[in-house]
Amino acid sequence: MTGYLSPVWFHVTDIQVEKGEGCWVYSTDGTKYLDFTSGIAVTSTGHCHPKVVKAIQDQAQQFIHAQVNCYTHNLMQPLADELESITPEGIDTFYYANSGAEATEGAVKLAKQVTKRPNIIVFNGSFHGRTHMAMAMTTSKTGYRSGHAPLPSGVYISPFPSPLGSDQEREESIDACLAQLDYVLNSQTSPAETAAIIIEPEQGEGGYAPAPKRFLEGLVSRCKEHGIMFVADEVQSGFGRTGKFFTVDHYGIKPDILVMAKGIASGFPFSAIGANKSLMDQWPVGSHGGTYGGNPIGCAAALATIEIMKDPSFLENVQQRGEQLRNGLRELAEKYPLIGDVRGYGLMVAAEFLEPGTKKPDAKVCAHVISHCREQSNVLMMNAGTWGNNIRFMPPLVVNEEEISIALNAVSNALAAY
Ligand SMILES: Cc1ncc(COP(=O)(O)O)c(C=O)c1O
Q1: Which residues of the chain register pLDDT less than 50?
Q2: What's the predicted TM-score (pTM) here?
Q3: How close is the Cα of 200 to the center of ligand 1, in Å?
Q4: Mutate to test the pocket of ligand 1, among 40, 108, 128, 231 (most ligand atoms within 8 A of CB)
């Protein structure tokens, strides 16, 4: 009898892999690919970093499933200590889960418990996950939502500043978006009914667009004024991806609640919610939980990941390689005006394809570049954005100068062939 795999997964490639090492993956047919997807911004320390592999192997021999309601284990507290040392000031208490969606949902539950309010505000282009509540919070593409209605209520959507245009246009977009948020607070969900404002400090799935500092500050001041929780979803933009541990660190912004996943454990399924103890203490015992959260192998992988990232050369590399990548893409944009914008912090970089001289998305050239890079140069990339017209560059954070050059050459060759 044949078993089948659900067709619901979309596939970027049909490559079957059997081994990963650093920035490279090896397929079962013996081909070697440079992986600029990192399994969607996950394998932060590279595929199978020896320290992470060893931590997982050692822990697997000790205990695989030390269920947190039945007993505790000896890695939960050390991980909380480490997380406290790298997260923004004020975040000192942690809840562990397994995926990004589970953590964003948990953050909403925590915000509701603390504020005793029912509603939340998210932004256009957001991606917070694919479970029902996270889907209701996700607006990057209708494809995630359609066919699944009704979605949970109490989610209000406000515009996100456009990353495109002149400095003046972008400043005007910030003003317009803050005005629109005030309108939402006056017309749809009053502050007294709003538990949280949730934002990705650099949007991921929505198109690798950093939220401007002035916009985030505007959100924080409204949250402070009205006792609304400011939640930073750093599932994709956290854990060194943007050259600091968290994207909010670029701006000195301190969220009330911080959501972490993806890069946290170098690929082992693990996520976490961080908040101040005074907030977490208001989460009634037993009102939230999960069978696998706080898994000891996940904790071991996260501890090893943090140890690797704490070496100052690690984040320095992210910053330097990010600059190399952005500079290289900007040079290409001069030659090929099909690249309409290059943006993003650290190694969370987008090249947005637009019809030259316009803001009209061009998904066709984006798809061509991605498939040309894969087929002709063995470099793996993915798109992002509502229109699918951005390449999101998200290599493992240990990527070196030569590997960035390989990817830039691949993009250059693809554009030359268009
Ligand atoms: C910002 C953000 N939040 C939440 C999620 C959901 O994470 P997961 O796919 O682990 O549920 C993602 C996944 O891409 C994400 O980028």
Answers
A1: none
A2: 0.98
A3: 10
A4: 128
